[in-house]
Specification:
Number of domains: 2
Number of helices: 9
Order of helices and strands: EEEHEHEEHHHHEEHEHEHEE
CATH architecture of the largest domain: 3-Layer(aba) Sandwich
Low-confidence stretches: 118-127
Distance between the termini: 46 Å
CATH superfamily of the largest domain: Cytidine Deaminase, domain 2
Mean pLDDT: 84
Strand content: 25-35%
CATH class of the largest domain: Alpha Beta
Structural class: alpha+beta
Helix content: 25-40%
Number of strands: 12
Largest sheet: 8 strands, mixed
Radius of gyration: 21 Å
Length: 283
């Protein structure tokens, strides 16, 4: 089922190119959290009308019921269509209707208690939104960046090529993502590769940590793919004032970067790029 929320959103950005800088409108893929609650079944029967919190996953709105059903199959909760009685959006006066889905399980379906403990983003109400996600990041100790590092636009434009030069695994396989740390002048500090975008970021952050290089003040993090909420969160927690991506950011990534003072740059290719948050660090 397709939810009523749009899959894309238009925002104002600052675009840098050989012709200079100008303000333009850009279209981003929407990223929002979807909370899944479970009711019915043997393990959760009689626990109340709101159901038990099961999981929160970041997604682009649309086909939410299919997403939830597939996730439950992957977790081993359901095996057949008739294991699910209904899939409904939570409704109420203070609830984000299309960001929470409740699953009503058939009476014979059992749910292992250990599976329930995987729920990570706790919400006291039925429904979460981008603001709740950002508040949760703040509560986890993620503070706004006060680093006043300034980077030349020309340096930023060349960083994706500098990253590619050190992607030996990608050159051989074509199947690896990369994350690289550079100083404000564009000199490489560390580059790591992995099949997962998040793993590549974790590796390079871990390399800095083990060398006493955190927080990453004055450093620029460059990633080979798109930028999601989680990657911005990882970068902010590590202290990177500037995050550069070859691909596109999601809407929630932009909201988090703007809220926590990080300069977020996307579509950095061929000397051109868009600045989605805090362009004041660009010279």
């Amino acid at each position: 089922m397709m939810g009523r929320r749009s899959m894309v959103r238009r925002i104002d950005v600052v675009r840098y190119s050989a012709e200079g800088r100008r303000r333009v409108r850009d279209t981003l893929a929407v990223e929002e959290p979807l909370e899944i609650r479970i009711a019915g079944g043997e393990a959760v029967a009689g626990r109340g009308d709101a159901g038990l919190p099961f999981s929160v996953t970041m997604r682009t709105p649309g086909h939410d019921f299919e997403l939830v059903a597939g996730l439950l199959v992957g977790e081993g909760v359901v095996r057949r269509a008739d294991d699910i009685v209904s899939l409904t959006y939570c409704t109420g006066p203070e609830r984000q209707e299309y960001n929470t889905v409740e699953v009503l399980l058939s009476d014979g379906v059992s749910l292992d208690a250990t599976v329930l403990r995987r729920y990570v983003l706790v919400s006291a109400s039925c429904g979460v939104c981008g603001k709740a996600s950002i508040d949760a990041v703040r509560a986890a100790g993620c503070e706004a960046l006060s680093d006043h590092t300034v980077v030349d636009a020309e340096v930023v434009g060349g960083l994706p090529d500098r990253l590619l030069e050190d992607q030996g695994g990608f050159a051989r396989t074509g199947g690896l993502h990369a994350a690289g740390v550079f100083d404000a002048e564009g000199a490489v500090v560390a580059v790591r590769e992995d099949v997962g975008r998040h793993n590549a970021v974790d590796k390079v952050v871990g390399a800095l940590l083990l060398e006493g290089g955190l927080p990453a003040s004055g450093r620029v993090l460059v990633v080979s793919g798109r930028v999601s909420f989680e990657i911005v969160q990882k970068a902010v927690l590590a202290g990177f004032p500037v995050l550069v991506a070859v691909g596109a950011p999601s809407t929630l990534a932009v909201e988090l970067a703007r809220a926590l003072g990080q300069t977020l740059i996307g579509f950095a290719r061929g000397g051109r790029f868009n600045v989605y948050a805090h362009p004041e660090r660009l010279r």
